[in-house]
Amino acid sequence: MTQAHQAGIKVAILSYELDLYFGDDIRGKLPFLSQVDVIVDTTYTNVLKPDPKAYHLCLDELQLAPEQCVFIGNQLNNAQGADAVGMHGLQLDVFKPQLCIDQAR
Predict the structure, then answer these.
(1) Could you give the residue ranges of the DSSP H alpha helices within 2-104?
(2) Given 3-state DSSP classes, what are the helix, strand and coil percentages for the chain, each rounded to the nearest 5?
């Protein structure tokens, strides 16, 4: 994420209830979140992945077209949901994260 941020690439988090689980002050407690341009959180949107609306909410906030975006998620159905709206969906293998990072590049 740091490399993307430093390169001027927009970074977003499309999250399941981040603030609901961790509290709305979580953003100030995690320094890496300062490198995130957009956080779309179902705590407020009530739209869950892989519903196409979730991805479109994020795209709207980023002001990017789907084909300009890479979605990385640990669940195959969410990566497929990203593909379905025109993004490049990648499934993260938590045991081999570098493979996904290389694909995203």
Answers:
(1) 2-6, 18-22, 26-29, 42-45, 52-62, 76-84, 97-104
(2) 50, 15, 35
Rounded to whole angstroms, the Cα distance separating 55 from 57 reads: 5
The domain containing residue 21 runs over which residues? 2-104
Per-residue pLDDT tens over the stretch 44-101 = 999 999 999 999 999 999 999 999 999 999 999 999 999 999 999 999 999 999 999 8
Q: Provide the CATH number for the domain around residue 13.
A: 3.40.50.1000
- Show the tokens assigned to 83: 């593909």
Q: Which pLDDT value is given to residue 83?
A: 98
Q: How many domains does the chain have?
A: 1
Q: CB under 8 Å to 14, separation ≥6 — which residues? A: 40, 49, 54, 55, 57, 58, 71
pLDDT interval class at 28 (50, 70, 90): confident
| Residue 39 DSSP class | E
